[in-house]
Design goal:
Strand order of the largest sheet: 3-2-1-4-5-12
Strand content: 15-25%
Order of helices and strands: EHEHEHEHEEHEHEHEHEHEEH
Shape: elongated
Helix content: 40-55%
CATH superfamily of the largest domain: NAD(P)-binding Rossmann-like Domain
Largest sheet: 6 strands, parallel
């Protein structure tokens, strides 16, 4: 059984490709919305849970996991660290599949930060309204700082009932919530920026699959400052950037095991 830690477009595509090639595949996602997306494209085995602590060993044993492919979001640092640790303890091959980075253009309105805290502080220093494409995970911290700084947060998040409830509970007005499944085109982002007229756009370095260019280019064209929270850097045992590379790696592992058993 190959365990794919999904939650991204590339994770979905990889799981589907493995399934089509006849592999036994188990996928995990963190939300009901993510689970429904995987089921909708025909992925059969999907677990909706946030794996932690002893749950890794239980999943590995219950499903006889032979390989773990971590295709989680580049900013899902904690689950990646846990996966690497659990695979090391259980002696299960770990493969990281991470979307390629996008080179940042040099532009006077483009700013970068290494941490969430630095990114939020820098963005909030640019004006009293911030268009966030950071999702919902860090909204609690952002809203706490926004209230202290007197900044209005325009939050673009997934159209998931639980996410929308979280936004409202954090005090974000319904008129400030943009519920939308990404990635979206430059034209849509331009229309949103034109409508809301934020003082700054706060985003992650989400790569091509995450629509990174489509987020920043319209803002820069409007001379809206953009603050980019740069990707965390981790020491992966194996890191690949494409489905083709992952399939080749899995195949080579199979051949290695086969030769050892002869």
């Amino acid at each position: 059984m190959i365990l794919v830690l999904a939650g991204t477009t590339e994770g979905k595509e990889l799981a589907l490709e493995l399934q089509h090639r006849g592999y036994a595949v188990l996928t995990t996602v963190a939300t009901d919305y993510g689970q429904s997306l995987l089921h909708s494209v025909g992925i059969k085995q999907v677990i909706c849970t946030r794996l932690k602590n002893e749950m890794w060993e239980e999943i590995f044993s219950a499903y006889n996991v032979s390989t773990v492919v971590d295709a989680t979001h580049p900013y899902a640092v904690e689950v990646t660290k846990q996966a690497i640790s659990a695979c090391g303890m259980m002696k299960i091959p770990y493969i990281r599949m991470e979307r390629p980075t996008v080179p940042l253009p040099k532009h006077e309105f483009l700013h970068t930060a290494d941490t969430l805290e630095e990114a939020v502080e820098l963005a909030f220093s640019k004006g009293n309204s911030c268009f966030s494409t950071m999702g919902s995970k860090h909204l609690g911290y952002m809203m706490e700082r926004a209230k202290q700084r007197g900044v209005q947060v325009l939050a673009r998040v997934l159209p998931d009932p639980g996410v929308l409830e979280k936004c409202i509970n954090l005090g974000i007005k319904k008129s400030q919530i943009i519920a939308m499944q990404g990635p979206v085109s430059s034209e849509i982002n331009a229309a949103l920026y034109k409508h809301y007229q934020p003082a700054v756009v706060l985003t992650k370095e989400s790569g091509i699959n995450g629509g990174f260019r489509e987020k920043i280019e319209p803002a820069l064209n409007f001379e809206i400052p953009v603050v980019v929270w740069q990707r965390p850097r981790l020491d992966y045992p194996v890191c690949l950037t494409s489905i083709k590379e992952v399939l080749s790696k899995i195949r080579s592992q199979e051949l290695g095991v086969s030769s050892q058993n002869k």
